[in-house]
Amino acid sequence: MNTTNRLRIAIQKSGRLSKDCQSLLKQLGVKLNLREQRLIAHSTNMPIDVLRVRDDDIPGLVMDGVCDLGIVGENVLVETQAERERVGQANAVKKLSKLDFGYCRLALAWPQELGQQSKDWFNGKRIATTYPEILKQYLADENIDASVVMLTGSVEVAPRAGLADAICDLVSTGATLEANGLMQGDTILESNACLIQNANLNDDNKLSLINKLLPRLKGVRQAKESKYIMLHAPKAKLEEVCALLPGTGQPTLLSLAGSEDYVALHMVSSETLFWETMEELKALGANSILVMPIEKMME
Ligand SMILES: Nc1ncnc2c1ncn2[C@@H]1O[C@H](COP(=O)(O)OP(=O)(O)OP(=O)(O)O)[C@@H](O)[C@H]1O
Ligand SMILES: O=P(O)(O)OC[C@H]1O[C@H](OP(=O)(O)OP(=O)(O)O)[C@H](O)[C@@H]1O
Ligand SMILES: [Mg+2]
């Protein structure tokens, strides 16, 4: 159990999620002194320690209470939960939020030269994967009688190396499958990075710190999706201009020095402004149209 009074957050040390995790913590206002080889990084402005580990270890560290929070892919979370369930180990976590990075899918794939295949083809075949529990559950649900070959890496080379007939691996752009002459089949699981919490956490100070971080997380997400829009609009066409603007927010109108016919319009929009809409605004006589990113938001 984590007995320190500082909130412990587990993130991936190096890999697909590490940069996004570090920049998320920064956006949440957590200042870290990250030295390359250190396992633990202490925050300099909050009672927070960040543990940098392999992603496979993150769910277990949170489930066992060694860490209070963790950021991990849902693929690794679901696999660890199933594995621990099978052996009767603690596997509960509280999922606090899905995050907007680390999107990938766990999909079946087989050598391209075999062409399109139905599910029946997998009967009697060997499928290589790093996610045996998720795959076995899928095979059972689909009534497929295939054997599972567990590999911790380089799964995509398994068919060529004669280790398996097919694979079940993570896919994002599909470039890895293509480079290895593999054809993508069914998606078994869609995954994003997510923020998890130890299910038994009951330290009031830590819980109140988490309650401070969560609205910030929401603010970071809203800010990413929102834009600040500024433009000059002819007073006579104001209603038509407003009707074209996305989102439901009320615009702010400001008078323009030296202009009787135009006003400046500012608004926060939950969406971006597409080129087509900007062209329509221009056609109504609007000008100086600016669409700007927002860094932080709090309602
Ligand atoms: N191509 C991808 N695009 C986006 N996210 C991905 C991609 N591949 C994997 N991920 C997500 O990022 C997580 C970490 O992937 P990575 O390849 O860095 O893991 P790893 O090699 O197992 O790293 P570690 O050394 O920490 O065990 C995956 O579990 C998944 O959730
Ligand atoms: O569909 P793609 O965009 O090609 O992405 C998929 C690849 O990305 C991940 O590996 P990663 O590149 O992180 O390296 P790793 O296999 O060494 O973990 C994953 O394991 C796939 O191999
Ligand atoms: Mg890993």
Concise summary:
This protein has 299 residues and is an alpha/beta fold. It has helices at residues 18-27, 58-63, 74-87, 132-141, 175-179, 204-225, 238-244, 275-283, and strands spanning 7-12, 40-42, 48-53, 69-73, 93-98, 104-111, 126-129, 147-150, 166-171, 182-191, 193-198, 227-234, 252-255, 262-269, 287-293. The chain folds into three domains: 7-101 and 193-223, Periplasmic binding protein-like II (D-Maltodextrin-Binding Protein, domain 2, 3-Layer(aba) Sandwich); 104-191, D-Maltodextrin-Binding Protein, domain 2 (3-Layer(aba) Sandwich); 226-293, Alpha-Beta Plaits (2-Layer Sandwich).
List keywords for this structure.
299 residues; alpha/beta; D-Maltodextrin-Binding Protein, domain 2; Alpha-Beta Plaits; 3 domains; six-stranded mixed β-sheet; five-stranded mixed β-sheet; 8 helices; 15 strands; 28% helix; 30% strand; flat; binds adenosine-5'-triphosphate; binds 1-O-pyrophosphono-5-O-phosphono-alpha-D-ribofuranose; binds magnesium ion
CATH class of the largest domain: Alpha Beta
Shape: flat
Mean pLDDT: 95
Helix content: 25-40%
The CATH topology of the largest domain is: D-Maltodextrin-Binding Protein, domain 2
How much of the sequence lies in strands comes to 25-35%
Q: What count of structural domains? A: 3
Count of DSSP-assigned helices? 8
Instruction: Tell me about the largest β-sheet.
Output: 6 strands, mixed
| Tally of DSSP β-strands | 15
Order of helices and strands: EHEEHEHEEEHEEHEEHEHEEHE
- In spatial order, strands of the major sheet run 2-3-1-4-11-5
Layout of SSEs?
Blueprint: E1 7-12, H1 18-27, E2 40-42, E3 48-53, H2 58-63, E4 69-73, H3 74-87, E5 93-98, E6 104-111, E7 126-129, H4 132-141, E8 147-150, E9 166-171, H5 175-179, E10 182-191, E11 193-198, H6 204-225, E12 227-234, H7 238-244, E13 252-255, E14 262-269, H8 275-283, E15 287-293
Parallel strand pairs: 1-3, 1-4, 7-8, 7-9
Antiparallel strand pairs: 2-3, 4-11, 5-11, 6-9, 6-10, 12-14, 12-15, 13-14
1-O-pyrophosphono-5-O-phosphono-alpha-D-ribofuranose (PRP) is lined by residues 16, 153, 156, 169-176.
